[in-house]
Amino acid sequence: MSELVSILTPTYNAEKFIQATIESVLNQTYQNWEMILVDDGSTDQTVPIIEDFAQQDNRIKLFKLSENKGNGFARNAALENAVGKYIAYLDADDLWFPEKIEKQIHFLKRNDLYFTFSFYDSIDEEGNNLNRRVESPNPLTYKELFFCNYVGNLTAVYDADYFGKIILETSQKRQDWRIWLTILKQIKTAEPVPEPLAFYRIRKDSISASKFKLVKHNFGVYREFHGYNFVFSVLLMMRFLFTQLVIKKKYIKNIV
User: Fold this and answer.
1) Are strands 86-89 and 118-123 parallel, antiparallel or unpaired?
2) 117-130 pLDDT, tens digit each
3) To the nearest 10°, the Cα dihedral for 56, 59, 65, 66?
4) What per-residue confidence (pLDDT) applies to 169?
5) Which of 184, 244, 235, 170 is nearest to 214 (CA)?
6) With 70 as the cut, is the pLDDT of residue 211 above it?
7) CB–CB of 47/64 below 8 Å?
8) What's the pLDDT score for residue 214?
9) Type and span of the H or E element at 34
10) Element (H, E) at 197
11) SS (H, E, C) 90-153
12) Does residue 254 sit within a domain?
């Protein structure tokens, strides 16, 4: 019997994208899943769209926050309500390939692993393929992850029976990177499924689209999460920027 996969999806004013995101889950070849959506106080039609899907499929579960508390809080709330053996992440504007879960669970079991991720392709706000593929070192070591987040949030899956539910402070930024660092600190290396299994949507208003904000939040990982002093954190950020601008480039491929 296949184990349950809990898919965590925080939402906030995602009416433009959430239907396609949910449909990409419904189209999975692996059927034993629950999709836990936590709405973070949306003021558009996000909630009615999700409610329509939830009425048609009881694997889709909606929880509503009374006010906007941030993506990290909503993600933790989803995790607290998850009951699956495996935890997977999917933001409200990203998409999965149909065999995404099936291939990853098979990969975990075949290789006796507790965590994996995959490569992914990029699309724009309108869903157009940008012909840009993001790969990673294989295997990925803790040191490599320490200087660059190679793990796409929309591709990660971990075994909650092995690691437990990894809940972080809701005020922390780059929460996803902190989760992978927590995992790799235990297992030292991680193996990706060496193919793209998801579409990452690049949006103009996203944090990742703002280079200044990204640097600021990444600095917070060294300063707050790792607890290094200010000067050493600055030095680490210099190494991070070198890795991001020089080394990671070889893992970003133009495809046709």
Assistant:
1) unpaired
2) 999 999 999 999 99
3) 30
4) 74
5) 244
6) no
7) yes
8) 74
9) strand 33-39
10) strand 193-201
11) CCCCCEECCCHHHHHHHHHHHCCCCEECEEEEEECCCCCEEEEEECCCCCEEHHHHHHCCCCCH
12) no
The residue written with tokens 């495996």 in the block is 86
Using the predicted structure, report yes or no on whether residue 202 has a pLDDT greater than 60: yes
Residue 255 identity (one-letter amino acid): I
Residue at 164: amino acid letter:
G
Those residues with Cβ within 8 angstroms of residue 70's Cβ, 6 or more apart along the chain or in another chain:
40, 170, 171
What is the count of structural domains for the chain?
Answer: 1
189-199 mean pLDDT: 98
Q: Which of 174, 153, 154 lies closest to 218 in space, CA to CA? A: 174
Question: Is 93 inside a domain boundary?
Answer: yes
Which structural domain range is residue 119 located in?
5-204
Residue 211 falls inside a structural domain? no
Q: What CA–CA distance (Å, rounded) separates 26 from 35?
A: 9
Domain contains 47: yes
What is the distance between the alpha carbons of residues 48 and 75, in angstroms, rounded to a whole number?
20
User: CA-to-CA distance for 54 and 61, rounded, in angstroms?
Assistant: 6
Report CA-CA distances (Å) from 178 to 20, 75, 135, 170. 28, 13, 19, 12
Cβ-count burial of 205 within 10 angstroms (0-12 exposed, 13-18 middle, 19+ buried)? exposed
- Residue 92 sits in a domain of what CATH number? 3.90.550.10
Do 152 and 96 contact (CB within 8 A), yes or no? no
Whether the model clears a pTM of 0.85, i.e. scores above it, the answer is yes
